[in-house]
Design goal:
By secondary structure, the protein is an all-alpha fold. Helices cover about 70% and strands about 0% of the residues. The chain has one domain (about 5-225). About 20% of the residues are buried.
Length: about 230
Amino acid sequence: MPYRRLPNTDSARIRALRSAVEKAADTDFQQLSFSTGTLEEAKSVLTHFEYLSARYQQLYETQVKAGKSFAKRTRNARIYISHFIQVLYMCVMRSEIKEGQLALYGLEKAGMVVPDLTSNEQLLEWGQKIIDGENRRTSQNGVPIYNPSIAKVKVMFTLFKEGYQTQKLHRKATSRVLQEVADYRERVDKIILEIWEEVEKHNSGLPPEKRLAQNRAYGIIYYYRKGEVAE
């Protein structure tokens, strides 16, 4: 005997509910295989779940699109900050800048090595330190570093920082709606199960082949175990 199994993806849940609702719409009231009360609830659940799923997809696509722009901003900021630090070190080695002034940038213990800028958080930390350090040094009559200038570094860093905050907002919004989708699945599964129970009970007196065909028309999905033959 075939066995049924509730949908395990959101698109499959929507298809199952839509099948039941559309079948009910094309069926005479007297011949409906499940109650009108269940039908009304199914319509409501379907509408809301479709909205939540579409909203999540929209937010996710927006996040992905913004992520591509953010990746470019991150790459540029990392290049400029890293390059600036390397030029700073060369100035120290040429005695154009005193080694003790590396403390202004938080680099006094770095061993003339560019700090790890792999993560966004590290990039945020060091970008701000480098900008602040250069501003402090030049305010003490130090000669500004050029190629790249701190102004150019700051532009790239600001674009990265803005993108970082935007991405956080996108992720937060996407995660919130995804949680709403996850929380609502229990209600969706419950109404699907109610429909299937009512439909199977209503059609229980029909011959096997006709019964399965009728049940499937309402969205019930049957599976056959290995070696079983479809009816």
